[in-house]
Amino acid sequence: MKALVSVKRVVDYNVRIQVKSDGSGVVTDGVKHSMNPFDEIAMEEAVRLREKGKITEIVAVSIGSEKSEETLRTALAFGADRAILIKEAGEVQPLTAAKALAAVFKKEGAQLFIAGKQAIDDDANQTGQMVASLLDIAQATFASRVDVDGGKAVVTREVDAGLETLEVDLPAVITADLRLNEPRYLKLPDIMKAKKKPLDTTTLGDLGVTAAAGIKTTKTSPPPSRSKGIVVKTVDELVAALKAKGLL
C-alpha cells in the first residue's frame, strides 16, 4: 500500500512574526523556515504505519519554490522513500494545492493520503477536505489515533463533545491532530541518507492545474497592543473598575 504525505514549508513556529510596514503581508525574507508542525506529525504517523507493515511506500510531496526541497529532504530523513516537489513560486491557495495534490495522488495510485490538519501560516484547515472531495473518497480529519487493517482505516478523532471513532474504506484522506503522535528526533545518519533519496520535480501545468487566487488579502495588521492592567486593593475597587469598563 502506498501513502502520500503532504508537507509544507512555513515560517518556523519559534519565530516572532513581524508584519510588513505596508501591510501587504508578513516578513519572510531572512526568517527561519521549517516543516509545518502538523505535517511532521503526519509524516511520523506514515513512518509508524510502515514500521507496522501496514503500508509499503511513503511518498512526500510539497508545493512551492526550490527552497521547499529542504523541507522535502527533512521528510526523507523522517523516513519517506522518495519525494516530489511541485514547483510554484507564486502564492498557492488551498483549492489550487488540493487540485495539485489530488492529481499526484491519482498519478501515484496511492491508497492513503495523510496531511497535517492545517498549516500554521494561514490556519486554513481546508486542503485535506478539498482533496477528499475532489477525489470523491472518504475522509477522517483531526485524527488522534490511526489503525489501518487491510482495506479499511479506523480513526479516532477529536470533536467538541469528546472522541469519535470512524471506520473508513480506503482510499481515504486522514488529517493529523497534535495528539496523534510525537515526531521522532532526526539523527545525523538519517539526514545524510536523505540526501541520496530520489526527489523528482514537476509543475502545476504538468499536472493539469492552473493556479487561481480565489481569495484576495486586502491588508495584514498586527493585533492591538495589550493595555496596561491596574491593581486594586479591595473587592469594591474591583467592582467599580469593572463597572467603569462596562463589564458589569
UniProtKB/TrEMBL annotation:
Cited function: The electron transfer flavoprotein serves as a specific electron acceptor for other dehydrogenases. It transfers the electrons to the main respiratory chain via ETF-ubiquinone oxidoreductase (ETF dehydrogenase).
Protein name in UniProt: Electron transfer flavoprotein subunit beta
Assembly and oligomerization: Heterodimer of an alpha and a beta subunit.
Gene Ontology molecular-function annotations: electron transfer activity
Pfam families per the UniProt record, alphabetical: ETF
Keyword flag Isomerase: no
Organism encoding this protein: Solimonas aquatica
Record bears the keyword Electron transport: yes
Gene Ontology terms describing biological process: carboxylic acid catabolic process
Domain of life assignment: Bacteria
Cofactor: AMP
Stored InterPro entries: ETF_a/b_N, ETF_b, ETF_beta_N, Rossmann-like_a/b/a_fold
Keyword terms: Electron transport, Transport
Similarity remark: Belongs to the ETF beta-subunit/FixA family.
Signal sequence region: none
Span of domain Electron transfer flavoprotein alpha/beta-subunit N-terminal: 23-211
